[in-house]
Each structure stands twice: as C-alpha cells, then as structure tokens.
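Subject: for your reference before the review

Hello V.,

The reviewers asked for a structural picture of the protein, and I figured it would be easier to keep everything in one thread rather than splitting it across files. Below is the amino acid sequence we used in the manuscript, unchanged from the supplementary table.
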Amino acid sequence: MRVTAFCCLVLASRLLLAADLPGSHDLEVLPRVPHAEIVEFRQGDAERRYPLGGIQRISGRLRAEREVSAEGALTAVTYQLPDGHAVAEAFAQAREALLGQGAELLYWCEGRDCGASSLWANAVFGNADLYGPDERQAYALLRLAAPRRDSLLALYAIIRGNRREYLHVEQLDAAALGELLPTPDTLLRQLRADGQLLLPGLTGEPGAAWSELLARSLMLDSTLRVALAGAQAPAWRAALVERGVRAARLELDEAAIAGLRLSRLP
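And here is what came back from the structure prediction:
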C-alpha cells in the first residue's frame, strides 16, 4: 500500500512538472505566478506594434492614439492560472516586480479603457485564447531597466467568458528604442495606485518634454496634491507651475531621492 501510494505521488508530481509546454520557460526578468501553467510559448524574431492607448478597428486597420513599433528577438509566454488564483492580482504583482527592478511604465489600462479585447487577442498578440469580455482585461507596456534598456515587456491579463484566467507576457529585445515617454493618463493611474511616482532618470534641470508630460498628468485631476522630492525638486515645482499646475497643489519634500519623486498627499 505504501509503495503504491508513493508511486502515485511520484506520478502526480511528474504530471505537474510536465504541465508546461515542452521547451517552454519563464522570462528571466519575471517570476512565475504560483501554480500557473504555460499553455502557449513562442520564441523567435518578430515585429511588434504595441499600443499606447485604447485600440479600435477603423476601415479594417488597427488604430491606437499612440504606439511603439519595434522588431527584434521575441519571447512570448501565456500562463493559465488555476481556479482560485485571481489574474488581477497576478497582473499587479508582475507590474510591481518589474517596477521594483527599475523598469519604466509606458502605458497601463484596465477594462473598457483598453478597447476591444478581441483586437488585443488577435491583432496585437495573435492568440485567440486571450479573447474575453472587455471589462475583464488589463494591459501594461514597460521598458526594462539597464542593461536591458532596449527591451520592452508587455503584460496582458484576461478573464474569459468561461471563467478561465490567462496572463500573457512577452519580451521584445530590440536593436535600439530611442526615447520613449509614458502617457499622461498612465502616470496618473500609477500615482493613484501606488501613491507615488519614482523617476530616477530625472536627475538634471527640468526638460521641456517631461515638464509638459507631468503637468498634463496632474491637470487630469485638479484635486490631486503631490509632494516633490529630489535635488531638483524646487526647479521641477517652478516648471510645473509655469505650465499651469496650481502652486497650492505642489509641496516640497526634503527627502534625499535619486532623480525625482512625486508622492500623493491626502
């Protein structure tokens, strides 16, 4: 009896280990969601157009307000989560893990703000299993930290109509990406969700592009008040006021911060 039970346990463990597709593996920069199973895996050279806004189809073509076009080595992994493991939580953990490594969040949307799930599944990622109700999706695009500054990482979470939950992640290692800026609504969403914006790359005097971007983000919510920290915080405060943000909404924080930090105030 004991031998039989032991053999059953060994067989069960092997089946669990064999659940992933043969030859598949996790991304080096992203820890696996506990108990998740790889149900699709692709690797090779590819060209991608990652939207930086909600998407729709107009005259037969995929349209987004902005997008990032790049080509290079692509690794795409689709995980199916077991019952009882919320994909929204898995998406949040993945986003936070990447930000903790110094990645930059370029775009983040949830629900109907992302557009049609059918377009994300078929036109963007080429995986019909990712199609589900529009209100049950989330997408984020990040630029990885050095030494992977020319790599993009996309996250897409969906709960299908049959209640199956998938987290799709893909890393595109491009030749050169150049300068990429996040969208104003993404910075505001991040500030609301995390309570702060960490911008370690903004070490010098305020530049026009980032000053305009931060001002536009803050002006999307006229009730939001923030504290600015960093060596150039007074200069950033002046730049934001010059671009129309009310001075009463901007306080200075004397904390020693590399670059610039915006913290949400109560």
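For the response letter, the relevant points are probably these. The first strand starts at residue 37 and ends at 51. Helices lie at 2-17, 87-100, 117-124, 184-194, 208-219, 233-242.

Happy to draft the paragraph if you're swamped.

O.
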